[in-house]
Amino acid sequence: MSTKGRVLVAMSGGIDSSVAAALLHEEGYEVIGMTMKTWDYASTVASKKETGCCSLDSINDARNLAVSYGFPHYILDIREEFGDYVINHFTDEYVAGRTPNPCVLCNTHIKWDALLKRANKLNCDYIATGHYAKLRYENDRYIISKGRDENKDQSYVLWGVSQESLSRTILPLGNFTKQEIRQMALDRGFTELVNKPESYEICFVPDNDYRGFLKKRLPGLEEKVANGEFILEDGTVVGKHQGYPFYTVGQRKGLGIALGYPVYVTEIIKDKNQVVLGTFDELSRDGMYVKQLIMGKYSSLNGQRMDTITKVRYKDEGTPAVIEQVEDTMKVYFGRGVHAIAPGQAAVFYEGNDVIGGGWIHSSFHKNAKHKIHHMA
């Protein structure tokens, strides 16, 4: 029996989770590996070879590593739960005129819950993942902070993990760079994992064709929303589009319209089946409202304003902002305009490297429009 405790490690078959499992095993934890089957590729229209965390190859890679270290490995089939929650939310959000972030939703509402349930059944003290982020306990709070490798930092996708879940979580990779993890893998003979390409696609949309996925998932949608209007910010109609669910705020390519100058989707008006186009400058917003908050470093801001760096998407470098919590809504005021604020995406607030909290973007506004609401759901 290990003196450090028993830990259930989420193993995708990739290099990061594999090294995480190996490190914990070497540190003296009693490791149990688990690979979650979230999606069946055969049910998609994907033309590419099956790749990613749900593929048979990835499951086998995880199992083989567990066998080589002599610890148990299980496969957890959560396809039904994943489909009911993540995929239904994905389609519902596009139909509502928003841009969903299924990976954040999966991490915070599916994978952690699924791991903890199985950890309890296996009498595990902890769960662990291969995310590049740090976790510490301070002032009666579990605090997520950025990983050492800024290029790989994944703290953005973890804002929604509850305090209860964090109390049993270990993040072994937070203090390492990707290059160091690659070297650790080579030192341990994981050559095939080092050479394995990483997938950045949504697991259930492996061709990155979310429009095709929506059409297959929601028969009749295409006909129902066809022939909507492209309009400019002043309301001028400039053309027809394929239907508002097939566009996202910030989109420039694939619009199928030429106005003689570059234009972007600046807003989606679901009730009128209109897609608003504008210049890059018109894509900018001065602030936003964020709802469904989950607080991290602080349980609440108690109506106090606070200076932060706020991210509006995963690869966003972050923008200085003042945030103010009013009941269940965070008002966010940017010091300079931010482009392509998409309702439905996650907003994450940072104090230094620490995650203050996060939530889902509800709407955005211009200062000079007296907090005019854009895309009010």
Structural class: alpha/beta
CATH topology of the largest domain: Rossmann fold
Tertiary shape: globular
Order of helices and strands: EHEHEHHEEEHEHHHHEEEEEEEEEE
**Overall tally of structural domains:** 3
Mind telling me the C-alpha Rg?
22 Å
Helix content range = 10-25%
- Beta-strand residue percentage: 25-35%
Low-confidence stretches: 44-51, 370-377
Distance between the termini: 53 Å
Question: What do we call the CATH homologous superfamily of the largest domain?
Answer: HUPs
Q: Going across the biggest sheet, name each strand in turn.
A: 12-15-14-13-16-17
- For this entry, what is the oligomeric state of its chains? single chain
**Biggest beta sheet attributes:** 6 strands, antiparallel, barrel
CATH architecture label of the largest domain = 3-Layer(aba) Sandwich
Give the topology, please.
Blueprint: E1 6-10, H1 15-26, E2 30-37, H2 56-69, E3 73-77, H3 79-95, H4 102-121, E4 126-128, E5 133-138, E6 141-146, H5 163-166, E7 169-170, H6 178-187, H7 191-194, H8 210-217, H9 221-225, E8 228-232, E9 237-241, E10 264-269, E11 274-278, E12 284-295, E13 305-311, E14 319-326, E15 329-339, E16 346-351, E17 354-365
Q: Can you put this structure into words, describing what you see?
A:
The N and C termini lie far apart (53 Å). The longest helix has 20 residues, at 102-121. This protein is an alpha/beta fold. Residues 44-51 and 370-377 have low confidence and may be disordered. It has helices spanning 15-26, 56-69, 79-95, 102-121, 163-166, 178-187, 191-194, 210-217, 221-225; strands at 6-10, 30-37, 73-77, 126-128, 133-138, 141-146, 169-170, 228-232, 237-241, 264-269, 274-278, 284-295, 305-311, 319-326, 329-339, 346-351, 354-365. The strands form four sheets. The chain has a six-stranded antiparallel β-barrel with strand order 12-15-14-13-16-17. It has a five-stranded parallel beta sheet with strand order 3-2-1-4-7, sandwiched between helices. Strands 9-8-11-10 form a four-stranded mixed beta sheet, with no helix packed on it. It folds into three domains: 6-194, Rossmann fold (3-Layer(aba) Sandwich); 220-279, SH3 type barrels, CATH 2.30.30; 282-369, Beta Barrel (Elongation Factor Tu (Ef-tu), domain 3), CATH 2.40.30. A hairpin with a 4-residue loop joins β10 and β11 (274-278). The chain contains nine helices and 17 strands.
